[in-house]
Specification:
alpha+beta, Glycoprotein, Type 4 Pilin, Dna Ligase, domain 1, 2 domains
């Protein structure tokens, strides 16, 4: 089952991508100076960037992860989501210390804009594994209070579906071999771009 075209928005054009990347960097710089994300006025931006969309912002220095924060559901205009998540990735990712001013010049920024997620219907782990499209699918896995997600970019380091799913279960706080009829999985796609 592939994601249907109706929920797959048209891709952003190069100028829209540049605008979002610049906004992310400005929000991080604002955070260094003011201690908070850049205030955004959505009406100052083109209509496509004002749509309610969910995004993740991933930061790297020298090819090493430096922060990654985002939303799985669309809760605000895309420009607001990018500004908020860029600040959070730089200063609030609990895995890293807050970004410092000298790091800003070496920082690379990637933005992943998500499609709405769609639930997958399966009766076994084997059936789920057959449904997953490596390299394309981002997954949200839930079982009771346990929850985790992997963006499609994670396929670069975990290209085999079984390993991808086992690591996702661990990220959600479950054993890698955990299975139950309580497992729920939703899939989404991303449009990712970087500086």
């Amino acid at each position: 089952m592939s994601l249907n075209r109706a929920i797959d928005p048209d891709p952003l054009d190069p100028s829209q991508r540049r605008t979002l990347l610049a906004l992310a960097r400005q929000s991080i710089a604002h955070g260094l100076d003011q201690g908070g994300p850049l205030p955004v006025v959505p009406s100052d931006y083109p209509a496509d960037l004002r749509e309610r969309r969910a995004a993740f912002v991933t930061l790297e220095t020298g090819g090493t992860l430096r922060g990654c924060i985002g939303h799985l559901e669309a809760i605000q205009p895309l420009v607001s989501d990018v500004a908020e998540n860029a600040f959070a990735a730089a200063f609030r990712d609990p895995r890293f210390r807050p970004l410092t001013r000298p790091e800003l010049a070496r920082l690379s920024i990637e933005i992943s804009v998500l499609t709405p997620s769609q639930p997958l219907s399966f009766t076994s782990e084997e059936e789920l594994l057959r449904m997953i499209e490596p390299g394309r699918d981002g997954l949200i896995l839930e079982a009771g209070a346990a929850r985790g997600t992997f963006l499609p970019t994670v396929w670069e380091s975990l290209p085999e579906p079984r390993a991808f799913l086992r690591h996702l279960k661990q990220k959600a706080g479950l054993r890698p071999d955990y299975w139950s009829d309580r497992v729920r999985v939703r899939r989404y796609r991303t449009e990712s771009f970087s500086e």
